[in-house]
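Predict fold of Deoxyribodipyrimidine photo-lyase; 427 aa.
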Amino acid sequence: MVFFWFRRDLRLQDNVALFHALIENAEVVPVFIFDDQILSELPKDDARIGFIYDTLKELDQQLKSLGSSLLIKKGSPSDVWAKLFEEYAFSALYYNIDYEPYATQRDAQIQKFLESKQVLVQAFKDQVIFDTNQVVKDDGLPYTVFTPYKNKWLKKLKPDKDLKQYDVDQKHGSFYQFYAAFPTLNSLGFTLSTIKVKPYNLEYLNVYDQIRDAPFDDKTTYLSPHLRFGLLSSRSMVKKALASNATFLIELIWREFFMQILYHFPKVVTQNFKQKYDAVPWRNNEQEFERWCTGNTGYPMVDAGMRQLNTTGYMHNRVRMITAGFLCKHLLIDWRWGEAYFAKKLLDYDLSANNGNWQWAAGTGCDAAPYFRVFNPTAQQQKFDKDARYIRRWVSEFDTLDYALPMVDHKIARERAINTYKTALQS
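Predicted 3D structure, encoded as C-alpha cells:
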C-alpha cells in the first residue's frame, strides 16, 4: 500500500505524481489534508475553502465510482502523517512538489520522518513546466529579469517532451478499494461563502491579446483559481497557449518566473527584493488605507476595482495594476499592506504572483516598474474604460453628488512619491 497526497493538483487526469503512484503500485490511497496552520489564518466562510471542498467532493465521487475513496484529514500535516503511518504502515508516499517556503519546509520535515520509518518518498514536478534550476543563466544563477528568463524558457521548451500528458485511465484499478465517509464542511470548521469561483472560459483565448485590457467586456478566462489549485495542468494550458495566443503564453511564463523568484529568494515574502528600497519612508496612513480597501478614494477606476474584489473575489488584471500603483505611489503605503489585503480577498491568491506583482507595482521587486513611473488613474480610465461602463457596474453612485472627491491630487501625489523615493534611494 502507498499513499498519494493531493495538494495543488486537485485532478485525476494529467497528474504526474499520481500517474507514477498508479503505474508503480497496486494499492494507492489518495489523501487530502486540511492544514490547520493555513486554515487558522482564514475566515470561517473563506470562499477558497468552499471551492476546494466542492472540488474534493467531485474527486471523491469519481474515486467512489472506481471503488475507492478520497481520505480527508485535518490537522498538522506532520501529525497526520505520523498517525497514518501508525494505522496503515504504508511503504511509499507520492506527491507533486510545491515551491513555496512553508511547503518546502513542511515537506522536508515529513520526508525526514517517513524515511526514518523506511517509507519511500517520491516527489515530482507538476505545477510548472520547468523546475527551479532548469531555466537559469549560463553561470547557473537564477534570472531576476523576466525577458531573458522568458527567452531561455521558450528556447528550452520541447513540446513533445515537456508537455507530455500523463493519462491514468488505464491504471484506475490500482486505487486501493475502500470506502471513506466524506466530511461536511461544517465538521471541518467552515461554512459556505456567498462568493463563488466562476467556471473558466477559454472561448476568447484566440484574441486574448486584443481583449485582455478591457475590464468591462468580462471576457477574461477566469482560469487562475483553477490553475492555482490544479484542477487543470500547466502542461495542458501551455499546449493551448501555443496553439492559440502568444500573449497568453507569456502570462503563463510570468507565473513560473515569479515561482522561481520566490523559491530562490524566499526573503521576498516579507522583505523588498531590492534592499535599497528599505529606506523608503512609507506614510502608512490607516484612514487612507481603509478608504482604499473599501473603494472610496474618489478615483473611479481604483474604487471600481476594489469593490469588484470585495464583492466577488476577482479583480481584472489591468485594474489590479492601477489599484496597487495607487496605494504604493499616490498614498505611499507599504506594498505589504496591499499584498496582505489581496491575499485575504483574491480567489486566485498565489503567494509568488501576488508578491511579485505587488513588488513590481511598488518598484521594490525584481524587474520592477521604476519608482518614477506613477500611473495616472484618470488617464488609465480614459484608456481602458473611457465610457465608464466598468466603473458604473461597481460604483453605483458614480454619476451622483454622493460620489467621493479624490482623496489626493494626482500631480501633487506623483511629485511627492517621486521625491520620497528619490531622496530615500540617494541617502
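The chain has three domains: 1-126, 128-164+201-264, 275-426.
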